Amino acid sequence: xxxxxxxxxxxxxxxxxxxxxxxxxxxxxxxxxxxxxxxxxxxxxxxxxxxxxxxxxxxxxxxxxxxxxxxxxxxxxxxxxxxxxxxxxxxxxxxxxxxxxxxxxxxxxxxxxxxxxxxxxxxxxxxxxxxxxxxxxxxxxxxxxxxxxxxxxxxxxxxxxxxxxxxxxxxxxxxxxxxxxxxxxxxxxxxxxxxxxxxxxxxxxxxxxxxxxxxxxxxxxxxxxxxxxxxxxxxxxxxxxxxxxxxxxxxxxxxxxxxxxxxxxxxxxxxxxxxxxxxxxxxxxxxxxxxxxxxx
Length: 296
Ligand SMILES: Nc1nc2c(c(=O)[nH]1)N[C@@H](CN(C=O)c1ccc(C(=O)N[C@@H](CCC(=O)O)C(=O)O)cc1)CN2
Known about the structure:
By secondary structure, this protein is α/β, with parallel strands linked by helices. The chain has helices at residues 8-30, 45-60, 76-88, 107-113, 125-133, 141-154, 173-182, 197-201, 252-256, 270-288, and strands spanning 4-5, 35-41, 64-70, 94-97, 162-166, 186-190, 206-209, 227-230, 234-237, 244-247, 261-262. The chain has two domains: 28-118, Rossmann fold, CATH 3.40.50.10860; 141-271, Rossmann fold, CATH 3.40.50.720. A six-stranded parallel sheet has the order 1-11-8-7-5-6. It has a three-stranded parallel sheet with strand order 3-2-4, with helices on both faces. The protein has a two-stranded antiparallel ribbon with strand order 9-10. One of its GO terms (molecular function) is methylenetetrahydrofolate dehydrogenase (NADP+) activity. Belongs to the tetrahydrofolate dehydrogenase/cyclohydrolase family.
């Protein structure tokens, strides 16, 4: 079997178009222009690219973009003060602090200060808790994007499917598991202490790899016909030694021979992260104005 490739880039472009239409409606009917504030601390090259892309895509969707850059040696207090100011700013509907933060800053403390209503990353414990109990809240962008891709491919009804999520981070693994559980999948979260991971992975109808180990998941870990979602973004040396290339947590070539559907890296899950951020910002702006959640 050769898997069908899930084109996350194309799906994300469609989602951004739907978000832009929702933003235009919100402006026309209620005079509200959603505003997204992104805070970057330091000069990590990948983070700089992601933040620039967020600003461009926010403006392209018709929303206001506010960008704040702090030097790598800024104090944690400075960052907390910036977040507090954004919490109080009515023009700002969504706040995102780009991760990772420099080592001297405590990301949990910073996220904890973000107003949960403006927490478009969905990382605040209030939003994590809402997801865990199945209540309406802001959902982390990457797992939300993964779920959209899976539902699009499998026809929307995931009930009864076996899902294995490799990775237990608060940002991807745990929220992904909750989202799949909400869809009535039978969900297992695997991690570094899991016994016989290949056998467990082979039981999955939906296999999500979010562990940060380049090409960990091999073709013989994949159940024939399974949907494989690769969240990994790992930069590794090219085989000929000329620079680097991006690979996922899945060994794409061997997994694609067995899977039914598979996301590539790049061009799979990655582009969904920013598209879902825009969707969350529109959702947050509507909720703050007492309006229903937009259908995207
Ligand atoms: N506060 C947050 N920080 C970080 C998040 C996040 O969701 N919130 N996620 C990642 C980085 N990220 C967005 O911030 C992000 C990662 C990857 C992509 C993407 O489009 N990737 C491309 C490849 C890009 C490349 O060539 O390097 C792809 O996979 O096709 C977008 C956004 C960590 N920090």
